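User: I'm writing a short report section on ligand binding and want a predicted complex to refer to. Could you take this sequence and ribulose-5-phosphate and write out the structure as tokens? A short remark afterwards would be nice.
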Amino acid sequence: MDQNALKQRVAEAALRHVPEGEVIGVGTGSTANCFIDALATMKDRLAGAVASSEATAERLRGHGIEVLELNQVDSLPLYVDGADEVNDHREMIKGGGGALTREKIVAAVAERFICIVDGSKQVKRLGGFPLPVEVIPMARSYVARRLAALGGQPQYREGFVTDNGNLILDVRNLDILNPIELEEKINNITGVVTNGLFARRPADLVLVGRGDEVISI
Ligand code: 5RP
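Assistant: Sure. The structure tokens for the complex follow:
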């Protein structure tokens, strides 16, 4: 089964966890897009969705699903999103699509976070995928020096501006022995908005599409 078919399969599996009559959070990326397309089949049984990016909001609206601002809701029973890497502790690297900050905010509000991935994203140790860090533009060089001091090799994502008007540094070669500690350390660098380690708030359930089956972690 090809990667796209696996993404569709996990997206459909996630649909079974969507509570009827509620507003849910929706992530960003190609796997989240498969979920949005699947969600459209039950849009009449949904109160609406909070989007983690402008692209997701546009796709949801395209299917006739009402998009609400996060500030319009007091709680979210569920958030569904993809990931670039996920380990056995349901900790993730996210942000390959550059939407990490809004994704982290929506995930923080959600009572339940379901991560949907194809098998290629499952790893023993996080860090093979370069860690995205969203940075206030004027702090770019300073933050890059601090990331280098942590042993990483930051690279400016040329020509990319986040939905929040900031830039992304993709950091290679980080030794991610303790994801929670590193997430906090990088977030404490002045000028960093947030980084793509989702360890302090891991997923509650990971659905992995592998071969003919969907495995739960
Ligand atoms: C976007 C993300 C995505 O969830 C992540 O990049 C995975 O994307 P895809 O499903 O296209 O592989 O974090 O910021």
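A remark for your report: The pocket of ribulose-5-phosphate is lined by residues 27-32, 81-84, 94-100, 103 (CB under 6 Å). The chain is about 30% helix and 25% strand.
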